[in-house]
Amino acid sequence: MVAATGVLRFRERVKSYLLHPRNLVVYADKSIVVLNKPNGLHTQPMMPLKSRASERNSDPFITVLQGIQGDLLPVHRLDKPTTGTLVLARTIRAARDISAQLAHRTAKKTYFALVCGDASHFPSPKGTIKTDLECINGQVNVKGTPNPLPPRAGHGESWVKHAITDYEVLSSSTKVPLSILKLDILTGCKHQIRVQLAQHFAPILSDSIYGSPDRDAPVKSLLGQKYTPFLYLHSSRFSFTRYRAVGPGKAFQFTVGAPLSVPFQDVCAAAGMHLGMDAIAGGVWINGTKVWGPEPSLDQTTKPVTDIIGDKSSGVAMIAEELQGVWYGPTISDE
């Protein structure tokens, strides 16, 4: 899965969030910190941030926030089983700005999913899914279709919302019924991707709510003991507008991506499906130019920004210098 010019080196290959919180960080600069969220971590504090210390210490997400130097403010969330890019603000101004872009749908979130279906499950290699989702007592389904879950008593959230997701089939396996999809969500509803894929095409691999063991069985058989049973949905990139303090062209597009988990890579490799280095290892882009993160023949974490993207007088290089960013994710080294 990696070019012959280098070996991908992950700083952490463990699968649990029960590790030092700094090991979850893949990028940081003056205004934001970006985590590669592992499976199983809630990203909404279960206890108020102002609750008693003994209660806060029992909340895994608050423990993560407190374990990283400086005050951090959550600006968006990922479902507990979803892995990948999670942006945290270091200032109130940054938190307000990112939150406003999310509210106005100008920030872009891109996901990768392993879906239990071959190429024949998709009417076209790319398209848009538009559905009305209905949530009753916290359980989400496409409006007007039978809910796969038994009725649940209680007073959970209830709503009906229109959901829009763009999809693209990146690769389909010839060994097992499995495909890699890239998904851009244009709305933000609970379980949006999971419900839409299950209803329109096929469920995400190892989805305990909208999938089934029968759909997962071919992949489990293919990998044997290497198979890890968790939701194969990864928040690949988060893109939003940032602003320079001074100078021409104050607004610029900032994109950050977290590397794929090792189990996700293992499934892709076993199924004969391939992704590019940027998709696998993540990185940071300014106005579409990659400024931090691994390249097949270059370890960018050890070189000045100007060595990577050219003359300091160029717009992208100047922005990168001003951000004072540091990439903590995977690197490439020759062996």
UniProtKB/TrEMBL annotation:
Record family assignment: Belongs to the pseudouridine synthase RluA family.
Gene3D superfamilies membership: Pseudouridine synthase
Q: What does this protein do?
A: Pseudouridylate synthase responsible for the pseudouridine-2819 formation in mitochondrial 21S rRNA. May modulate the efficiency or the fidelity of the mitochondrial translation machinery.
Localization, per the record, is: Mitochondrion
Domain Pseudouridine synthase RsuA/RluA-like as annotated: residue spans: 32-199
Please give the catalytic activity noted in the UniProt record. uridine(2819) in 21S rRNA = pseudouridine(2819) in 21S rRNA
Cellular component terms (Gene Ontology): mitochondrion
Q: Where is the signal peptide?
A: none
Q: Which InterPro entries match?
A: PsdUridine_synth_cat_dom_sf, PsdUridine_synth_RsuA/RluA, RluA_PseudoU_synthase
Top enzyme class of this protein?
isomerase
Q: Name one Pfam family in it.
A: PseudoU_synth_2
Query: What is this protein called in UniProt?
Result: 21S rRNA pseudouridine(2819) synthase
Instruction: Just give the chief location class.
Output: mitochondrion
GO molecular function per UniProt = 21S rRNA pseudouridine(2819) synthase activity; RNA binding
